[in-house]
Specification:
Elements lengths: L14 H4 L20 E6 L24 E4 L5 E4 L5 E4 L17 H20 L7 E6 L1 H11 L7 E5 L22 E6 L7 H5 L1 H7 L4 E6 L8 H19 L1
Parallel strand pairs: 1-2, 1-5, 5-6, 6-7, 7-8
Antiparallel strand pairs: 3-4
Helix pairs in contact: 2-3
Protein name: Acyl-protein thioesterase
């Protein structure tokens, strides 16, 4: 008799953690699509998720500083994923194992292709007139790992990169490819201490790695938080971006 092993697919969706957002007041200004927008926030989703599913996040950013912000929630293409037995799903690059640890294998080739696509999105906004200092890239899980690579491999300083439950998706040899201006881009790193999908140790390894490259990183640990995005993290993100928007505009 042929026995088959059940396949349990890992997806890093935010559906269960952002349901509450749907009930919050929507800011009417956030739908503006002015190409000369004062700021641009690019959000990169996790494995198996989609951009549209994450759009409710923007309704939390109700401060006046965000009334001219343009948001973008792109979706990854469908690709086979090794950690899910080769199942095809939305994925920015390949992930070899779950849980992700500080020493997990890295798909640098796939990562660099994804980075090129992110850079194209940023370049389009900059070409439309947005100040690079007011461009912020944020991401959850796999999207957080891609965020880190995208801002550090960009040729210019950006407003900031925010990593949520992510990891360093490349080896230390990649540091030599970081432009000097890119090393000035500040990083916000948030990670749940109860994360069993991307282990907390993978998050903790981020700041020391970035220190080698001279990159400033603010690390925030959240006790009891698993592999999900919390309201507290998003509130902190809003404050963090606001601070950098004011400094960039002064």
């Amino acid at each position: 008799m042929l026995l088959t092993k059940p396949i349990v697919l890992f997806t890093a969706t935010l559906s269960s953690t952002i349901i509450f957002i749907l009930f919050l007041r929507s800011n009417p200004y956030l739908n503006q699509q002015d190409p000369m927008a004062r700021s641009f926030i690019l959000w990169l989703h996790g494995l198996g998720d989609s951009g549209p599913a994450n759009e409710p996040i923007k309704t939390l950013f109700t401060s006046p500083e965000f009334k001219l912000t343009k948001w973008s929630f792109p979706s990854a293409l469908n690709n086979p994923v090794t950690c899910n037995y080769g199942a095809v799903m939305p994925s920015w690059f390949d992930i070899h194992e779950i849980p992700v640890t500080a020493s997990s294998p890295k798909d640098e080739a796939g990562l660099l292709k994804a980075v090129q696509n992110v850079h194209a999105m940023i370049n389009k906004e900059v070409a439309a007139g947005t100040d690079p200092n007011n461009v912020f890239v944020c991401g959850f899980s796999q999207g957080g790992a891609l965020t880190l690579a995208s801002v550090l491999l960009y040729p210019r300083k950006l407003g900031g990169g925010a990593v949520f439950s992510g990891w360093v998706p490349f080896n230390s040899s990649m540091i030599e490819r970081f432009a000097q201006d890119a090393r000035k881009t500040p990083i916000l790193w948030s990670h749940g201490m109860a994360d069993r999908t991307v282990l907390f140790e993978a998050g903790q390894a981020g700041p020391p790695f970035l220190e080698q490259a001279g990159v400033s990183c603010e690390f925030k640990a959240y006790p009891g938080l698993g592999h999900s995005l919390s309201n507290e993290e998003l509130q902190n993100l809003e404050s963090w971006i606001k601070t950098r928007l004011s400094s960039a505009s002064s």
